[in-house]
Specification:
CATH architecture of the largest domain: Alpha-Beta Complex
Radius of gyration: 22 Å
Strand order of the largest sheet: 9-7-5-2-10-1-11-15-19-20
Helix content: 25-40%
CATH class of the largest domain: Alpha Beta
Structural class: alpha/beta
Largest sheet: 10 strands, mixed
């Protein structure tokens, strides 16, 4: 039995979708523990690209059960669009996807408030996807959120919605100067969602506990990345939940000692979407070249990602925060264009060295990255399937990551296609 958590270790967009897809093949269950449809996981198989925002990418393996835990927030429209998209391509979803009855719902007023707040913030905006994720989590912690269990009783649902909309419409009308929302239309829409969702609803905590007791192999999937964690990321430029490994147990209702292995997904360089500090961000024209080489555009929004050199201050930080057992390195092939590669190993701030990731955003804005320069390999590695066949300088780059972070490497992705990877050790990946 293995219960393996897979976490992003930068600002998201590390290629977790592919890694989850690869490790799902021997798995029985893939469970997402947090986040909403602002996270896009992309899988490419036989030239066909699948982008999933809410459903775990394990759904592409016909024998895998997929779960969305209570730590997730669910947008019914996007969820059923994805279900229809998958089923139109011959992927069976009903009977294989289950959602926690405790999961919170993204309501139309959450999306309206998210978009209005970003617009009003002007240059101070966070750079959200506008999909209502933050406002949904805000209501969760203000204890006025709508959960899936609230759909079971129309009178109860309508009472909660009317109370919520009295506040939300006042905020939209008086503060943001936006249109009010119709409570009757929203009640009807979400009652209809309840009818559609009924076959998918389950007590995920009980289901997972039973499966683990039976010796099933389980993957726990986080959305976004550690540097977007609301507690441990580059606050306030973060998401509204906890993508780091510690949230896996809470978001799924299992004990933390059930988790046997944690895999950190690390892109061979660094990217981020939206605003916020980024110490290793590249200057032009190299930034645009990286974006072109790596196809660095958001799976959810299509926004251009900011690109930079690999930052191992972040790597060490993520290894510590998540208690990593192994790395899955992604997009190593993108670096094949370079004569030499820079890797950040520490920062300089006001004349002193900084080796630990600072919490102060104003410090991160002002730090200067300290780089080590390593030789590139200028050789296409996308067809390489064995570690020893990689160029010597490429292997040296990987050894440098391992030595700097103290975390062994279990898998290397060398292309977008499902089969473009090098497995180093099932033991290191927690699968042996």
């Amino acid at each position: 039995m293995a219960v393996t958590a897979i976490v992003g270790c930068q600002w998201g967009d590390e290629g977790k979708g592919k890694i989850v897809d690869l490790l799902s093949e021997p798995a029985d269950i893939v469970a997402r523990y947090q986040g909403g449809p602002n996270a896009g996981h992309t899988v490419v198989h036989e030239g066909e690209e699948t982008i999933l925002h809410q459903i775990p990418s394990g759904i592409l393996h016909p024998n895998v059960i997929c779960l969305l835990g209570s730590g997730s927030v669910i947008d019914p429209r996007i969820l059923f669009e994805e279900i229809e998209q998958l089923e139109s391509r011959g992927v069976k979803v009903k009977g294989r996807l289950f959602i926690s009855h405790k999961a919170h719902l993204i309501m139309p007023y959450h999306r309206a408030i998210d978009e209005a707040a970003e617009h009003a913030a002007g240059k101070s905006r966070i750079g959200t996807t506008g999909r209502g994720i933050g406002p949904a989590y805000t209501d969760k912690y203000q204890r006025c959120g709508i959960r899936i269990v609230d759909l079971l009783d129309r009178d109860h649902l309508e009472k909660k919605l009317r109370a919520n909309l009295a506040d939300k419409n006042k905020l939209l009308r008086d503060y943001y100067k936006s249109s009010e929302l119709d409570v009757n239309r929203i009640v009807d829409e979400y009652i209809d969602f309840d009818r559609k969702a009924d076959p998918y609803i389950k007590d995920v905590s009980v289901f997972l506990d039973d499966a683990i007791a039976e010796g099933k192999n389980v993957l726990l999937e986080g959305a976004q990345g550690t540097l977007l964690d609301v507690d441990h990321g580059t606050y306030p430029f973060v998401t509204s939940s906890n993508p780091s490994a510690g949230a896996a147990a809470t978001g799924l209702g299992i004990g933390p000692r059930r988790i046997t292995h944690v895999v950190g997904v690390l892109k061979a360089y660094t990217t981020r979407v939206g605003n916020g500090p980024f110490p290793t961000e590249l200057d032009e024209p190299l930034q645009s070249q990286f974006r072109k080489w790596g196809g660095e555009y958001g799976a959810t929004t299509g926004r251009a990602r900011r690109c930079g050199w690999l930052d191992l201050v972040i790597g060490r930080y993520s290894a510590r925060i998540n208690g990593l057992d192994s790395w899955a390195i992604t997009k190593l092939d993108v670096l094949s264009q370079l004569d030499e590669i820079h890797v950040c190993t520490s920062y300089k701030y006001k004349g002193r060295e900084v080796r630990h990731f600072p919490a102060e955003p104003w410090v991160l804005d002002e730090v200067q990255p300290v780089y080590e320069t390593l030789p590139g390999w200028k050789e296409d590695i996308s067809d390489v399937r064995h570690y020893d066949d990689l160029p010597a300088s490429c292997r040296s780059y990987l050894d440098f990551i391992k030595d700097q972070t103290g975390v062994p490497i279990g898998l290397i992705s060398v292309g977008a296609e499902r089969g473009a990877y090098i497995p180093l050790s099932d033991e290191v990946l927690g699968l042996a």
